[in-house]
Amino acid sequence: MTRPRQRSRIIERLVFIPVDVRDAAAVANLVATAEQAFEPPAVMIANAGIVPNASVLNVDVSACDAVIETNLRGALLSCQADGAEHGSARDPRSDRHHLIHRP
Q1: How far apart are CA 99 and CA 80, in angstroms?
Q2: Fold assignment, 2-101
Q3: Helix or strand or coil: residue 62?
Q4: Closest Cα to residue 31, out of 73, 78, 98, 66?
Q5: Which of 48, 49, 57, 82 has its CA 20 to 30 A from that of 63?
Q6: Closest Cα to residue 78, out of 15, 34, 24, 36?
Q7: What is the pLDDT of residues 45-100, one digit of tens each?
Q8: Residues forming beta bridges with residue 44, ordered by sequence position
Q9: Phi, psi (degrees; rounded to nearest 5) at 46
């Protein structure tokens, strides 16, 4: 019977923060909000990603641009915001914080 209690404690610690990972200010706000709600995280997982629903021969250039903006720029902005917030960008030798990219 301890499982439901553990699950409810975990759910109480969840926060939903919608963010457009292509927007640097929105990503910085996400990191700051998460830190205020909890504590400085030990891990940042940048896993937003999109894929066009078309053959490479038929994909529109704007769809390709959206993929690059979300999958590449979004990961970059997420890592920069988190690193700036926690000092890992200033001290790359820091082993207290890890950045993970998984689109």
Answers
A1: 10
A2: Rossmann fold (3.40.50)
A3: helix
A4: 78
A5: 82
A6: 24
A7: 888 889 988 888 999 999 999 999 999 999 899 888 887 766 554 455 555 555 55
A8: 99
A9: -95, 100
Nearest-angstrom CA–CA distance, 96 and 43:
9
**Helices then strands (H, E): number in the chain?**
4, 2
Flag whether the pTM goes above 0.85. no
Sign of the Cα torsion 21, 27, 31, 34 reads negative
Can you read off the two tokens belonging to residue 6? 């553990």
Q: Which amino acid is at 91?
A: D
Domain spans in the chain, listed from the N-terminal domain onward? 2-101
pLDDT band at 101 (very low <50, low <70, confident <90, very high): low
5 φψ region: left (φ > 0), alpha (ψ -120 to 50), beta (else): alpha
Residues in the chain: 103
- Name the residue among 99, 56, 43 with its Cα closest to residue 75: 99
d(CA 78, CA 59): 27
